[in-house]
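Re: weekly structure request thread

Next one in the queue (252 aa):
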Amino acid sequence: MTTHTDDAPLIMPVLSAGKHRTPRSGGCFMEFASYLAGERWSDHPACTHPALAFLARLTNDCTSDRNRSQLAELIPSVIGLNGDDDRVELLIALRVATAALPIASEERQRALAVGILSCEWQLSRRGYPPGPELRERMRTAFDSAPLAGSWARDFVAGSALPTRERAISRMAESIIRAGVLGIAQACTADADAKLRDVLRGAIADCAALFGPGSVENGVAGAGALDLEEAVVARRRNNAVPQRDRLFALRRG
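Done, posted below.
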């Protein structure tokens, strides 16, 4: 006889790529987060920091249909992870870029290496130089792509880095996008697992700054929606959507 524990979900979300107008047409990672937080159905909910939500949307869309459902267990963890700490988007960008640099195509490695150095400079400028764990991740990433690292150091030395907050946010967003695409399109069999690990790591980075997120912390008063109707989204086919078209619609 099949049994279940009290803390096991009765229904797991069936995630699909792209933006969805209603739960009946499917749902992405952040849309289900908005539902669990009691917000209106949206892939840009207020319960999660915009940079983390941006990473979650890209991870959702770039993960294969076969493995996307494995992201569902992370959804409650992003709820309530929001605040004004100016390190968040830089730390998330570094999390993605250091993971992507060793496996990304050569054409992306230079951009990612510049992104890592730029984020490091921005953190130090704000009085938050990278700690030992982050420095080790950066060192490992550069050791895997020494030519890109050398080129990036020369480039940064001769360039003016952004100092306005909006420009810094755009820079971080570009690094996150390049990193996610670099992992998703890398010649590796475990790209989905790497994307999932990056998202999990970014969630941990945010939790270290804001405190751990949870459904209880982020709920604003969930509506009396039918859970099964809202969560279970049937896919009409298993076609993989064109990523370029998805990214054109799903901006940060």
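Residues 106-125 form the longest helix (20 residues). The two ends are 46 Å apart (CA to CA).
Next request, please.
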